[in-house]
Amino acid sequence: MIEDVTGTEPEVTEKENYFELKMYAPDKEERIIEAAIYAVQGRYGKRIKDVRTIKEQNLLRGAIFFVEYEKGAENLPNELRTNLGMPDETAGDIYCRRLLEIRALPVKRDNLEKLLMFTGGGTMQIPRTPGGLEVYSFPTENGVMLDVPEGNYIVLTQDGKFGKMDAQTFMANFEEKDTNTAGLSFDEKRLFEKMNSLFGKNLQRRFSKLTEEYHELFVAVDDMLVNGIIPDDKTEIIDELADMNAVLFHIAGLFGYSQKELLEMAATKIEGRQIDPNFMQKHPHKKNDIYCSSIYDANDVYCGNCAAFKCEDMNGDGYCETCDTMRHCGNLACNEWQSKAKNQQYKHFDERFNKRL
């Protein structure tokens, strides 16, 4: 690489723990030598411990690099070379960072075919010894070879530039793009992922925790509920509100919604009911309604008591999944009728809820 840029072969002197790389090009312009220095620094990264420039008559003529040997070099590797071609960006999976969309692929032994498509070809160095790390090398957009160790990510930004990133940094800043992800801000996403790792994604347990926080909130406001006394120190109430809100935030995120989206949905319902009190209401199933199946016993076979009767509106009209047609809750059911057992489900929920209180 240095010879290609400067036209002069570099001198390499081996030491015990490092080697010296001397680049000397007295007949080249300073800007070319500076570009070569930056390229070497980019190639060796943190392994460079010192750089001493060579000047003659105050003109930059070269540099000496003091570079540590690569750790684990004894494990490196045979090479698997391929013909270079045009990179195929669609081979990389889409990841998101805040408002930045990138494509990236992890370097893994079973991922070579996608890596070759993604980068337009490259070289996979496979270690001979057990436990050694493979290295994938390929030319970037400016022709400089990029070496990416196993476990790191190759990143392609929207401006067409390749780079590499260690797995820990990548996972802390990016997540795989998912159209069902809640519309959370960057800070909310970090909190959501942290709650996932700490508390898990089991909805039954999260709702149980919500009930626990609900109970603790009511303990905190007991005097206000019983005696109508608002305490001077509201710290405990605010603390319990924050705890319950955090659980609600997590549950909403697990369902694919942000709290902002839930507030917007509630605002739509409130505004609609100012115009129409029955806006987004379900059929009340009044017992005196002769058209409603609820005037019958729960065992009576009417559409309103069928598990296949869905999306019932304020007028008692709904959709029958079995017949694939609209029906009314008071219609006599067909031979495919199945009991909804709705009241029993609510009874069990109430028992669990009241037992916790």
Characterise this structure.
The chain has helices at 2-6, 30-44, 112-119, 167-173, 186-199, 203-220, 222-227, 235-254, 259-275, 342-356; strands at residues 11-14, 18-24, 48-56, 59-68, 78-81, 93-97, 100-106, 123-126, 135-139, 145-149, 153-156, 162-165, 175-176, 309-310, 317-320, 325-328. The protein is elongated and about 95 Å long. The protein contains 10 helices and 16 strands. The strands form 4 sheets. The protein has a 5-stranded antiparallel sheet with strand order 12-11-7-6-13. Helices cover 35% and strands 22% of the residues. Helix 6 packs antiparallel against helix 8 (235-254). It is α+β, with helices and mostly antiparallel strands and 357 residues long.
The quaternary organization reads as single chain
User: Mind describing the biggest β-sheet?
Assistant: 5 strands, antiparallel
Radius of gyration: 33 Å
Strand content: 15-25%
Pairing-aware structural class of the strands and helices? alpha+beta
Tell me the number of helical segments per DSSP (H or I, 4 or more residues long).
10
The helical percent reads 25-40%
What's the end-to-end separation, in Å? 73 Å
Q: What is the overall pLDDT average?
A: 79
Poorly predicted parts: 285-298, 342-357
* String of helices and strands: HEEHEEEEEHEEEEEHEHHHHHEEEH
Outline: elongated
Strand order of the largest sheet: 12-11-7-6-13
Q: Tell how many strands the DSSP assignment holds.
A: 16
